[in-house]
Amino acid sequence: MSTVNFAEKLAKISEQWSPKIIARMNDYDFKLVKLQGEFVWHDHKNTDEAFIVLDGELTIHLRDRDVVLRKGELFVVPKGVEHKPEATKECHLMLIEPVGTVNTGEAGGTMTAPSDVWI
Amino acid sequence: MSTVNFAEKLAKISEQWSPKIIARMNDYDFKLVKLQGEFVWHDHKNTDEAFIVLDGELTIHLRDRDVVLRKGELFVVPKGVEHKPEATKECHLMLIEPVGTVNTGEAGGTMTAPSDVWI
Fold it and tell me: How far does A26 lie from chain B, in Å, by closest CA?
């Protein structure tokens, strides 16, 4: 039960594409992640996933369109909807999703990160 | 499935202490609220509640201490923990909590607001 300051937590993150847990609410985690470049196509079969951009700009490619998210914007990817995040410059992002949600869903691959690391 | 811009949504809120839903993730709502002054002591018996300050400063009184939250800070009040929000100047806040969570918990009273209003 302590206050979480996003800037302080972000300052501790160096590795990109590796979400770190900063808080938990019931069985949901708040995670921060820095990302740049292109992620992999994936979905989450059993859950929606919320994206909030804290700094920079994020494109979420969907199969039928692109969603551009800027600082101070939120987007919820519904469960089962394929998406591919991409950022030209480094983007600072908060994810809210159920405990144990893996960043690559069921797609796997080298960009898969642990889902249980706190910072 | 649309992008939510916090500033645009906040501009549509005039009434204080009346949370408005801006997005839903599974069975959780993201709500925005403007508040100033003192709320009532209450708790939520069945759920944690996440507070993120988007602008201004919020004090969350707990029975054993006060938590001060500033812009860019997050705090999760655990279920069953009594709390009383207070803000000297108008504070812009995001709440994340299960669908149907009532702002005053089971305390009731004149500050109780509908929990199902989207903006």
Answer: 6
